[in-house]
Amino acid sequence: MILRFFAVTAAALALAGPAAACAHPKTSLSFLEGQIMCPTCHTTLDMSEAPAAQRIKAQITRRIAQCWTARQIEDELVANFGQGILAAPPHKGFDLLAWWLPIAGVLSGALLLAAGVWRWSRAREPEIDAGASPLLDEETDRRIDELLAGMD
Amino acid sequence: MSRTLKRTGQTLALVAVAGLLALLVWRLTHQTHSPKIGGPAPNFTLDRIDTSGRLDLASLRGKPVVLNFWASWCVPCKGEAKLLEHAWKQYRSQGVVFLGIDYNDVTSDARTFLSHHGITYPTVQDGSGAIGDKYGLTGVPETFFIDRDGRLVGSHIVGTITNQVTAFDRGIRAALRQ
Predict the structure, then answer these.
(1) Do A73 and A107 lie in a common domain?
(2) Which of A19, A77, A82, B19 has its CA 20 to 30 A from that of B105?
(3) Per 3-state DSSP, what percentage of chain B is helix, strand, and coil (rounded to 5)?
(4) Where in the sequence is the domain holding B85, given as residue range(s)?
(5) Closest-approach residue (CA) in chain B for A116
């Protein structure tokens, strides 16, 4: 009877252990599913039901239950699967190019577009020359005025 | 001003096109092709998961090698695990080395798999799948045969060996031949 009591208590403690170990998880599976790739299907985990993806999700769940942070879990997965397991390239070294090149491209494009628009708008502006002769000579102007007056 | 702008635009466009062309050429020249039978087996050095340390395929030169790609999440791999272990025990007296490559797998799951199925031959881990790519892997399990000179021989087995036992034996005999 006593042995059974101890066995049940030990089992209960073993089951309660992981939950008690992390009352306030530092990250969530739903967050990490979008950050981690499935190595066999090359989509993020949240898009994959592949067996490899299921195993990685199970591993992440175990680590969350052990109170690991997202960074710690990502580091472990990178050590296991390589850098390609991360959905986004890291913000350091050569990989920085992946972040900055698109921004540089968009900025260059915007600058070129702005310069082009500016040039085009200048080319269409009528050139006003102060010293140029008026469009109508005085005689024609006077006759038009007379005609308009006659129509009143 | 407009002339300079035009020149700058043209230069940028040229640089962009040249960059894209360079990327295309790089991709074409670095494309992985499946290794040819009779050709050298792609070499690798990977971490062992059955024990500590690393294993270099080149260090096995002079011995016939059966190379089996597997993963703990792969259901057919479970089916052939016992058969592979049995074959390893059968052929090792003839100098054949069995080498497991755990492909795209969680290390702890892979170790559990090894102990659960009683695998005793050396096993390394290809976590990123880069070596699998070098071998032109289409999935797991797949088994390759390498002769004493480090050349791929026989025809590699796609899928489980369980229902391809004849091809498996033929592959081992081809690796042993010399």
Answers:
(1) no
(2) A19
(3) 45, 20, 35
(4) 45-176
(5) B5
* Residue B104 φ then ψ, to 5°: 45, 55
**pLDDT confidence of residue A19:** 47
Give me chain B's average pLDDT, please. Answer: 93
Q: What is the pLDDT of residue B85?
A: 97
Does pLDDT of A68 surpass 90? yes
Reduce the secondary structure of chain A to three states and give it as a string.
CHHHHHHHHHHHHHHHHHHHHCCCCCCCHHHHHCCEECCCCCCEHHHCCCHHHHHHHHHHHHHHHCCCCHHHHHHHHHHHHCHHHECCCCCCHHHHHHHHHHHHHHHHHHHHHHHHHHHHHHHHCCCCCCCCCCCCCHHHHHHHHHHHHHHC
Q: Closest partner residue to B104 among A39, A59, A116, by Cβ?
A: A39
Query: Closest residue of A to B133, CA-based?
Result: A40
Domain that includes residue A98, residue range: 89-116
Which whole number is the average pLDDT over A8-37? 74
Nearest by Cα to B80 from B171, B176, B168: B168
Nearest to B9 among A51, A81, A112 (CB): A112
Residue contact B130–A81, C-beta within 8 A: no
Asked whether residue A121 is domain-assigned, the answer is no
The residue among B29, B109, B135 whose CA lies nearest residue A81 is B109
Mean pLDDT of A45-68: 96
Q: Is the pLDDT of residue B157 over 50?
A: yes
Tell whether A43 and A75 lie within a shared domain: yes
